[in-house]
Structure formats: C-alpha cells, structure tokens
C-alpha cells in the first residue's frame, strides 16, 4: 500500500540454524511439505463438527464448583426445574383464558398462573417450565409456545406484512398480540441473533482482509492463498478445541459468540504474521527471484514471528486459569490457534505453497514489474 519505497530492515541471509534447515526442506520437497501440512490441518478440522456453540445456561458460566449451581440443583430436586426463572407471557385480558389453556397443553410446561392484575388491558402470565432455564429443552419449549401462538394468529405484525400495514392497524395488532419473554426466551433470541451475526460477519471480514492483501501485495493469487490457509487453520483450531472441550475438560457447551471471537482473534493475528512474512518475501523476490525470495524471507522472519507467536499464545493461555467458561474457551482456542499458525501454517504450509507456485503467486503482476 506504501508503494515501492516501503522500508524493510536489512539483515544478512542466515542459512544455518533451524530456519536454514526448514528452508532447505521446503526447497527440496515443497509439495510434500504443503500436502502433509494440509492433511494435518484438515484432520484436525474434522472435529469442528462436534463444536457445540448453541449457548449454555447461565448456571454453567462458572467452571468448577458453584454455589449458585448447587442451589439450582437443590431447587430442581423439589420443584419444577424452571420454577426459579419462569417464562413470561404478556396477553390481552380478553385472551388470557384461551392463552392459559393453550400453554397448559404444552409438554414442556409445568404450570401457568396469572401474576398481578390487568394493566392497560394486558395481563402477565408466569409459565413454569419443566426443564432448567436456558437449557436446550427449555428453549425448545419456548419455540413451540411461540409457534402455537402464531398458529392461532395471536402474534403481532412483522416483516413485510408490517411494512404494508398502516400505523393504526399495526398498533391495534400489537395491542392484541401475545408475547413470550423471560430469561429462557432472552437467551434463545440472543443465541439466534449471535449465530445470524456470526454467519454474516465472518464472510465480510474475510472479504475485507482479501481486499487489503490485494492492495498490499498487488496480487490475487497470494491473498487467496493466505486467506485460505488462515481459514483452514481456524477450522483446525476449532476441531481440536471441540475434542478438548468435550472429552478432556467436559465443558457443557459454548456460548454462540465463542467461535466468532475466536475467529476474529485468530484471523487477525494469522493474517498479521503472514503479512510480515509475505512483505519480506516480496522485497527479497525483487532482488533474488520468487523462490529464493521465499526462502530468504522465511529465514529472516522465522525467529521473530515465531517468538512473538509463542509469547502471545502464553498470554492468552493465562486467561485459562480464570473460572469463567467463556474466557477459558477463548484462551484455549486462541492460544492453540496462534501456536498452530506460527509453527505449522506460517512456517511450513505458506512458504511451501508459495515455493511450489513460484512466480504465479504474484499473478496478475509479473516479477519483472515488481523489480521495476
């Protein structure tokens, strides 16, 4: 982005040491190196299908012993599991009896009672769920309740129908609508919104990063390669994390936002390290050609970038000592992902792929134009 005058510290080409050995390995067997690295990453990424990120109850936010969780278990032993945090249904007073009858027929509902008196023609019904608040079973009950209410035509206007209706009609329908809320409903809506945002944000972030890399490296192939390797690295990190969370740490699940935060950290850090490497490779390629430039760039940046990655991984790993589920999971995902990126992806996979492609990584710009 800074043109041909970007400053890169000059250093003698070190052909000895571990990075000299790695560069010779890549130069000798580039295709074997990147193929083996890719197989390892894909194998790790298979476990990603077992990553349970559909939300966890508030009672499971604390790792280890929790007096609050013990209290909830004691309550559930003598009363319906959802007695402590009932769902809340707001209904018009004229429909209260019908709504109560409908809700009592739900399989996941233990009891329904009116709380207080009517206010502005509305009544509040407390719905005690048979399952623990914010559990997947309780959320399924909330979903069923909302579906049955919608089937009765008691829900308010939404979407395109609301856009076509007059303000007066919308107001009248909202006044007659039956609304389902409460802690479990809030958790359900939050998880659904988070998943929607996650599916939207991840492609947008990758697209923005790709554009920045195109401007920086003045190539299309190299940015595609870098973005692709970072995505594979992230998938591998999630796969290993899923295996660890489910089989080693026995975590009950993960918040829906955990993959998104892990993605943001790992992609940002992984792309940073790849930019450091490829910027140096680009400079060396102007003088020595692409393949020699890749080896020189790796030898020049390998020690510094790997050291930075190890320090950063240790920093994130320190968060794992906190008894908070979200922080423990983020610390493991990021720490493992950073180590994986610095040791395998940036040290072997990216250089080997670039070496195998040769001058094609700079397409559509030719190497002689870089040297100009």
UniProtKB/TrEMBL annotation:
Membrane topology qualifier: Multi-pass membrane protein
Domain of life, source organism: Bacteria
Major subcellular location class: membrane
InterPro entries given in the database record: MMPL_dom (IPR004869), Mycobact_MmpL (IPR050545), SSD (IPR000731)
Membrane found in the keyword field: yes
GO cellular component, one term: plasma membrane
The SSD domain, residue ranges: 229-355
A Pfam family annotated for this UniProt entry: MMPL
Gene3D superfamilies: Multidrug efflux transporter AcrB transmembrane domain
Subcellular compartments: Cell membrane
UniProt region (Disordered), positions on chain: 151-176
Keyword set, alphabetical order: Cell membrane, Membrane, Transmembrane, Transmembrane helix
Transmembrane segments: 33-51, 200-217, 224-245, 257-277, 298-326, 332-358
Ranges annotated as biased composition (Basic and acidic residues): 161-172
PANTHER family named in the record: MEMBRANE PROTEIN MJ1562-RELATED, MEMBRANE PROTEIN YDGH-RELATED
Entry's family note: Belongs to the resistance-nodulation-cell division (RND) (TC 2.A.6) family. MmpL subfamily.
Identification of the protein by name: MMPL family transporter
Source organism of the structure: Sinomonas puerhi
Lineage, broadest ranks: Bacteria, Bacillati, Actinomycetota, Actinomycetes, Micrococcales
């Amino acid at each position: 982005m800074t043109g041909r005058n970007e400053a890169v510290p000059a250093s003698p080409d070190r052909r000895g040491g571990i990075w000299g050995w790695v560069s010779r390995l890549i130069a000798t067997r580039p295709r074997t190196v990147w193929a083996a690295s890719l197989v390892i990453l894909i194998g790790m990424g298979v476990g990603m299908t077992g990553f349970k990120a559909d939300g966890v109850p508030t009672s499971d936010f604390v790792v280890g012993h929790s007096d609050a969780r013990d209290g909830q278990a004691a309550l559930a032993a003598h009363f319906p599991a959802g007695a402590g945090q009932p769902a809340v249904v707001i209904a018009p007073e004229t429909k209260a009896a019908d709504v109560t009858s409908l809700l009592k027929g739900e399989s996941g509902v233990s009891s329904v009672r009116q709380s207080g008196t009517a206010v502005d023609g509305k009544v509040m019904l407390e719905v005690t769920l048979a399952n623990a608040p914010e559990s997947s079973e309780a959320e399924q009950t909330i979903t069923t309740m909302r579906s049955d209410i919608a089937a009765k035509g008691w829900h308010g206007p939404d979407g395109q129908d609301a856009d076509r209706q007059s303000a007066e009609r919308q107001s009248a329908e909202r006044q007659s609508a039956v609304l389902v809320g409460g802690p479990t409903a809030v958790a359900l809506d939050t998880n659904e919104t988070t998943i929607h945002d996650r599916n939207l944000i991840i492609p947008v972030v990758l697209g923005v990063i790709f554009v920045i890399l195109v401007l920086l490296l003045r190539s299309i192939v190299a940015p595609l390669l870098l973005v692709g390797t970072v995505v594979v690295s992230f998938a591998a990190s999630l796969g290993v994390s899923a295996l660890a969370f489910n089989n080693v740490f026995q975590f009950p699940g993960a918040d829906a936002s955990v993959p998104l935060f892990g993605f943001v950290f790992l992609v940002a850090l992984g792309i940073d390290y790849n930019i450091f490497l490829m910027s140096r490779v680009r400079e060396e390629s102007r003088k020595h050609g692409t393949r020699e430039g890749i080896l020189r760039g790796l030898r020049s940046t390998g020690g510094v970038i790997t050291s930075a990655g190890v320090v950063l991984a240790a920093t994130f790993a320190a968060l794992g000592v906190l008894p908070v589920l979200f922080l423990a999971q983020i610390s493991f995902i990021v720490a493992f992902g950073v180590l994986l990126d610095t040791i395998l992806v940036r040290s072997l996979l990216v250089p080997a792929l670039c070496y195998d492609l040769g001058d094609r990584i700079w397409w559509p710009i030719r190497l002689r134009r870089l040297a100009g």
